[in-house]
Predict the 3D structure of the following.
Amino acid sequence: MFMGITLGITPLFRGGKGQKNGYMRKIAVISSKWIKCALFALLLALIAGAAAGGAALAAGAVPPDAVVVLDAGHGGFDGGVVAADGSTEAEINLRITMRVKKRLEEENIAVVLTRTDASALGANKREDMLERARIIESSGADAVISIHVNKYTSPSRRGVQVFYGDTGTGGAFAAKLQSVFNTYLNEKYCGRYYSALAGDYFIAKCSSIPSVIAECGFISNSEDLKLLKSSAYADEIAECIARCVKSAAAGV
Ligand SMILES: [Zn+2]
């Protein structure tokens, strides 16, 4: 931008000083004075504008609509529930989480992850959970979504279900997210409508940030398992989360 302005000014000044005729020269000098003044003012305005623009760029081109912690449940020594084909909940949770992260970022929602690989976050369950809590507390996020998959004795049970901490702040967000899941996923895949349920879940009440657990489907159901292992379904989960987070961030 600055380069373009410099190139524009130079030929104008050269033209003014080059006049031999006195009258024309006077006109040229007056004109050039006014032009100088005008250009100086323009230059100042541009410098101010560029400085403001530069500051905005330095702080990040577009601020995110919201910040979300995605917590891939289990990992390492704790594989979570296991499907009939040997798939573990820990690996499915991580795959869904990474896909959801990608989609949320495309939707201008910043994501903080608790775990990024197959490992646990501590040597035992207590250490692992405390480390997740530490990441959540220091995230400054607008919401926490812990990604899990469910298992039930009856293989016919299907669908996405949301839970929140009985003493946490996630009740309203959980109800909203459950409603979105019901509308966009449960109606489509299993025709079953769930209500968000409260329980004694450490991860959902270890901070003051509205926190929920999304059980994304049942690995004990073969159709759900197929979905849970597909990127397309993870994208649908992400769409629901993005929709809910954005409307919550907008206060709707
Ligand atoms: Zn789980």
